[in-house]
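Hi R.,

Here's the input for the alpha-D-galactopyranose complex you asked about:
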Amino acid sequence: MIINKPPMGWNSWNTFGDNISEKMVCDMADKIVELGLRDVGYEYVVIDDCWSLLQRDENDRIVADPEKFPNGMRAVADYVHSKGLKFGMYSCAGTLTCAGFPGSFDCEFIDAETFADFGVDYLKYDFCNFPEGKDPQLYYNRMGMALKATGRDIVFSACNWGTHDSHKWIRSTGAHLYRSTGDIGERFNSVRNISLSQYDKLQYSAPGCYNDLDMLICGMDGIGNVGHPGLCGDIQYKTHFALWCMMGSPLMIGTDLRRVRPEILDLFKNPDLLRINSDSETRPPIIIESPSCSVACAMFKHLSDNQFALGFFNLADDPAVADFRPHDIGFPINSGFGLKLREVFTGETIEFLNDYHRVPLDTHDCKVYIGEYVEKN
Ligand code: GLA
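And here is the predicted structure with alpha-D-galactopyranose in place:
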């Protein structure tokens, strides 16, 4: 199976952690449809850790917790499918999941069969409690093979947090996406650190297997499992989402969709950012770090149809100015062309015809443009 864009959907972990249930998951599926998120591409509803009993059954099968999922997992999958959505679940390459539930180590084939029986379309595969001395590549590959052996199309979402240089080998295991970072928290510092840690890995993302920067914290407003009250507002959410789109990450919403604010919904649906995220060419951005402020930067990304995206990001904790010379991306002033740009949040249009641009940015803010080349008169 090939997937041709970074997966989009919703995942339970960031808000709900262990506090998951059939009712809540079905509510989220309803909301994805009602809020128009399905129509713009959010299609996977993923249950993360903490869904099973602590013990396997007498046939070595993992069993869904009947208190959380009283009608069994197949019923949840059927409900999600009835909404025109796809159903995702979670396991772990280690002996136990990160929260201490049974992991799939040495049970890969039987577990893949269980997931296929449930009607799963997507499996997130974590890395806690992986036995020392074993080779992660072989065990991710084992699950890659086990999923294929079921005969069902299941997206394989590897999650070993970028350890063991996984960007260099994960494609060979059949993974369709792979977490390249530790866990996100609802802090701008976390967004910044994840982003900076990717600058040297972006070249490894390509059609069919995407670099996963972790689930989104946009709109959590301090509530939930990885929530931190007061540390992120709409500017931070905006920059977070725009960075994930510029870097072509999977977009897994982590917030409670029953209380999502309209501003956040607009962000999730921003058509230009979604287009940048899933552009069919899957180009990584060129990153230009600005000398005038510690971590403000510009990113340039080729898009299909001879267009491009140009983003300016202030990752610093003070207002900053991103300096930009087209020359920094190899674009000469005497090419006979200028750059015509439209900002994706405000619609403002500008033309870069000259050599030097200063883009003032508030703390943690960004500007992202979609552009095309224009002939100079
Ligand atoms: C790890 C993963 C998280 C989440 C938790 C669940 O920390 O990186 O995304 O799945 O496990 O326990």
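One thing worth noting: The longest strand covers residues 366-375.

Cheers,
M.
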